[in-house]
Automatic annotation (TrEMBL), chain A:
Residues 1-20 form the signal peptide. It is found in: Cell membrane. Gene3D superfamilies: 3.40.50.2300. This is BMP family ABC transporter substrate-binding protein. PANTHER family: ABC TRANSPORTER GUANOSINE-BINDING PROTEIN NUPN, TRANSCRIPTIONAL ACTIVATOR PROTEIN MED. It comes from Halolactibacillus halophilus. Belongs to the BMP lipoprotein family. It is a lipid-anchor. InterPro entries: BMP_lipoprotein, Peripla_BP_I, PnrA-like. GO terms for cellular component: plasma membrane. It comes from the Bacteria.
TrEMBL record, chain B:
Signal peptide: none annotated. It is found in: Cell membrane. One of its GO terms (cellular component) is plasma membrane. Its main location: membrane. The lineage of its organism: Bacteria, Bacillati, Bacillota, Bacilli, Bacillales. GO terms for molecular function: transmembrane transporter activity. It comes from Halolactibacillus halophilus. The chain crosses the membrane at residues 12-38, 58-76, 83-103, 109-130, 142-161, 193-211, 241-261, 267-288, 295-315, 321-339. This is ABC transporter permease. InterPro entries: ABC_transp_permease. Keywords: Cell membrane, Membrane, Sugar transport, Transmembrane, Transmembrane helix, Transport. It is a multi-pass membrane protein.
């Protein structure tokens, strides 16, 4: 019996070995078609596009290597982590970096954060970015143990010497979204769907409420939290309740939970096309999510330039040295956050433009937090 | 006697074949997508075994999986599908951190014992609710434990935000609640491997004693095999249902304490249930309910989990591939009837041949 089993197994193994060998020779031809291997793809396109000019021009800077560690959302979350990774890819193209000069480490569980940082450490990257406030502890733990290594942290402030913090004044963009919502609503009621409670999402909520009140403080803002960044079902449930209660514009700052908000709005519009309702998207332009047969119901989206912030911090380090311990905050004035025109009416867009100018020149001070941080 | 030996051999062969078939399936899938499976497996293995740090991390992950695996397994032996291991782990984690934060200045041995005891208690209560509902009202423990998972998740997040924490996370527990052992940390180049692995070994041994050498363990198994017959034989089904669920939840809670105190040292808002809970189910299934088997299968899963991190940069393969391999292994364990069928067929032919030869 054993012999036969061994025979079967060894045949299977031989098959794998032989096929494996085939696979490796095929690699180059198949990789171009496979999107999954973005790294190698980027390399290929980068080489074609920029040719030799960039790499010879910036011989010194192309030695630089950067890496990022994602939070639990993963690198293809269509929002936060993805925009960070896209920023790195853009950087790679700009400086003509090879595919071993930028990489991501994906965390599937919060227990993976620290091993991922250590893995990146072993590979010798010049700056390792942690994407999201969830990684703060992990970044700080690893940074304290490796004082000579440079780290970056997005969306939270660390006071460790060798960590640069990149934060966003999301409340300013949310303020403009609030202005847009207040100029669009006809029912006098708007909604806000948050992800998990905490400092980051509180900025969105506070800014949005302030923006609505700035236009007309009789407009009611219905605030609900999903306690998740992933569960679209809860998002749909909350949106259904909001629209039923008369809200006609809903802003979500809840990652993938927002997909449920879009679904609910689409369902409602398809069954009752005359009753116009809107969704405001978050982090990247979500206009595509709002397409339906009668037009588009994405009023606008607030934009968060995570990728640009990473590119800037990296270039700053290359040019002037690492700004360790510093906190670089990106707001409307630095083009770090913004809103898009989307499907706003002329009147709403004009009001948003005015409000933007006033926020930038300091006439309006947008509050940052509703609750005082303990 | 002879048949028992054969069974034992089969019980060892089934998981081994499942692992092989799972790895081969993963390899074929990688080939289909144009990746090289040999580079991939090589990146995983050399990544984990090539450095004491990552080996330590793999063993740390395995420690947690041993507890959740044993926890799932004992309920499974008694005939229940405790899918709430993740939630029980989370309440155990919360309880241990709570106790550790409440008494930061107690002597280390006392504080660690108290924290762990609180975690076991919390996990046991969480599972016990489902057990009691099942025993007295016949409600499905699958549904109740799934719902209790979400209750645990949202309760934990509420407690962090309103009672325990400052924002999204609690303080770090004091040195006195730390589970790390100096020489072990040094040996594994600073990994988070901790005393939990020795606790896991002791628990594996105790589990084996309980299930094979004690009356209570025998009753649990008997109830699992046939509740009606065991009731007829004078065993209390109600008692055994609740007992097995209490132990199951207690083990998951213990895993939560080791995860909380050993891996993180604090508690933070969770966006989902801890994966160690669900992977524990897989570990238990691969270990076929045998405590030693569960211990080794949790090591395999720990290596797969940590090794997965090496796939994207070491071999250009998406790290989800490791999850697919894991899933394939579980599939083949679940489909062990097929494996047994072929093994029996081969066996019969052989005995026939032997008889003919004689």
């Amino acid at each position: 019996m054993k012999n036969k089993l061994l025979l079967i197994l060894s045949v299977l193994f031989a098959a794998v070995l032989v096929l494996g060998a085939c696979g490796s020779t095929d690699d180059e031809s198949t990789d171009d078609q496979t999107d999954q291997d973005t790294e190698q793809n980027e390399d290929a396109t980068g080489d074609e596009g920029t040719d030799d000019e960039d790499s010879s021009d910036e011989g010194a800077s192309t030695e630089f290597k950067i890496a990022m560690v994602t939070d639990e959302g993963g690198v293809d979350d269509r929002s936060f982590n993805q925009s960070a990774w896209e920023g790195m890819q853009t950087w790679g193209e700009e400086v003509g970096a090879g595919d071993d000069q930028y990489a991501y480490y994906q965390s599937n569980d919060s227990a993976d954060f620290i091993p991922n940082f250590n893995q990146a450490l072993a590979e010798g990257y010049d700056i390792i970015y942690g994407i999201g406030y969830l990684l703060q502890e992990a970044v700080e733990d690893v940074a304290k143990l490796n004082p000579d290594q440079h780290f970056g942290l997005v969306d939270s402030v660390s006071d460790v010497e060798n960590v640069i913090s990149l934060t966003f004044r999301d409340n300013e963009a949310a303020f403009l979204a609030g202005v847009a919502a207040a100029h669009t609503t006809e029912s006098g009621k708007v909604g806000f769907v948050g992800g998990q409670k905490g400092a980051v999402i509180d900025r969105f909520q506070t800014g949005f409420e302030a923006g609505v009140a700035h236009v007309d403080d009789s407009i009611e803002v219905d605030v609900q939290y999903a306690n998740s960044f992933a569960d679209a079902g809860i998002g749909q449930q909350i949106a259904a309740a909001m629209y039923t209660n008369g809200a006609d514009v809903v802003y979500h700052a809840a990652g993938a939970v927002g997909n449920g908000v879009f679904t609910e709005a689409r369902n409602r519009l398809e069954s009752d096309p005359d009753n116009q309702i809107w969704v405001i998207g978050v982090d990247r332009d979500q206009e595509a999510e709002g397409d339906w047969e009668g037009g588009n119901f994405t009023l606008t989206s607030t934009i968060k330039g995570v990728g640009d912030a990473i590119v800037n911090a990296t270039n700053l380090t290359i040019e002037e040295g690492f700004p360790g311990g510093e906190n670089i905050a990106y707001g409307l004035a630095e083009d770090g956050v913004d809103v898009v025109r989307g499907n706003m009416s002329d009147e709403a867009w004009e009001a948003v433009e005015t409000a933007r100018a006033e926020v930038v020149d300091g006439t309006i001070e947008v509050p940052e937090f509703t609750y005082t941080e303990q | 006697m002879l048949t028992m030996n054969k069974d034992r051999l089969n019980n060892l062969l089934v998981p081994i074949f499942s692992i092989f078939l799972g790895l081969i399936f993963g390899a074929l899938l990688m080939l289909a997508f144009g990746f090289n499976p040999i580079t991939a497996y090589n990146a995983m293995i050399s990544g984990v075994f090539g450095s004491p740090y990552f080996l330590g991390e793999a063993l740390r992950a395995a420690t947690i999986l041993t507890f959740t695996g044993l926890g799932f397994s004992i309920a499974f032996k008694a005939g229940f599908f405790n899918i709430g291991v993740a939630g029980q782990l989370l309440v155990g984690w919360t309880a241990s951190i709570w106790v550790a934060l409440a008494f930061p200045d107690l002597p280390r041995l006392m504080l660690v014992t108290m924290s762990i005891a609180a975690a076991i208690f919390a996990g046991a209560v969480w599972a016990g609710v489902a057990g009691a509902l099942r025993a007295y009202f016949g409600t499905s423990e699958v549904i109740v434990t799934i719902m209790l998972n979400y209750t645990a998740l949202h309760l934990t997040n509420y407690l962090i935000l309103n009672v325990l924490g400052t924002g999204n996370t609690t303080e770090r527990v004091s040195e006195n609640a730390n589970l790390s052992i100096g020489w072990l940390t040094e040996l594994t180049a600073g990994s988070r491997l901790n005393v939990g692995i020795f606790i896991a070994m002791v628990v594996v041994f105790l589990y084996w004693i309980f299930m094979t050498k004690t009356t209570a363990g025998f009753e649990v198994r008997a109830v699992g095999l046939n509740p009606h017959a065991s009731t007829y034989a004078g065993m209390s089904a109600t008692k055994n249902i609740i007992l097995s669920m209490l132990i199951s939840g207690g083990l998951a809670g213990l895993g939560g304490a080791i995860h909380g105190l050993g891996t993180f040292g604090n508690l933070f808002t969770q966006s989902g249930l801890p994966t160690a809970g669900f992977n524990g189910i897989a570990v238990a299934l691969l270990g076929l309910g045998n405590p030693i088997g569960i211990f080794f299968s949790s090591i395999l899963f720990g290596v797969l989990e940590i090794g997965a991190g090496f796939l994207p940069n070491g071999a250009g393969v998406p790290d989800e591939m490791a999850s697919i391999v894991t899933a394939a292994i579980i599939f083949f364990v679940g489909a062990n009837y097929i494996i047994r069928f072929f093994m029996n067929k081969l066996n019969n032919k052989k005995t026939q041949a032997v008889q003919e030869g004689e």
